[in-house]
Specification:
This protein is of the alpha+beta class. Helices cover 22% and strands 31% of the residues.
């Protein structure tokens, strides 16, 4: 089942996809056309997308699967417990991955929303 784009996913995509990069800008234009197809079952917030490719142009990210955007997550103490990766396949948003590198700090999309630094 496909669900509409939840606020946590939309807010993190907005934070990670900058407006100055042409690839990021093209991917931002795709956001209104994506839906969450599936989420990771561990609770991290990783989301896999379905996209109506007929509704938007592909981003100039190249063929195949690429990390189109990434952002490290920093705590108030300056620690980096993880990062957010945005993947594109053939120029279209494919999934948003939440990566955790810490056993002490749970990294989720909620954590990312609070701690991502512009």
């Amino acid at each position: 089942m496909t669900e509409t784009l939840p606020a946590d996913v939309a807010l993190v995509l907005e934070a990670v996809l900058g407006e100055d990069d042409p690839v990021h800008l093209a991917l931002r234009w795709q956001v209104p056309h994506i839906r969450v197809r599936e989420r990771c079952t561990c609770g991290c917030g990783t989301a896999y997308f379905d996209l109506d490719a007929q509704a938007v142009e592909p981003a100039p990210s190249g063929p195949g699967t690429v990390v189109a955007a990434e952002a490290q997550i920093f705590t108030e103490d300056g620690e980096c417990p993880g990062e957010i990766l945005v993947f594109a396949q053939g120029g279209y948003l494919s999934w948003l991955e939440v990566c955790s590198w810490s056993d002490d700090i749970e990294v989720t999309l909620a954590t990312a929303q609070r701690l991502l630094r512009p």
